[in-house]
Amino acid sequence: NLLDALTPEARATLEAGTTVHPYATGNRYVATKGANIIHFVGTLHVYDPRMEAPLERIRDVLAHSDGVYVEATEAEQAQLKSEISKRPELIFATEGATLPERLGQADWSILSDELAARGMPAVLASKLRPWYATAILGLPPCAIKELGGQANGLDKLIMDAAAEARVPVHALEPYDAAIRVFTDMDDADQLDILRSSLPLLGEAENVYETLVESYFSEENRLFWEYTRQRSVEESPEDPETAAADFARMEDALLIRRNYSWIEPILKAAEGKEIIVAVGAAHLSGVNGILALVEEHGYRIDRESF
Question: Own/partner pairs for 209-213, CB < 8 Å, 24+ apart?
Answer without folding.
Answer: 209/1, 209/2, 210/1, 210/2, 210/3, 211/44, 212/44, 212/46, 212/48, 213/1, 213/3
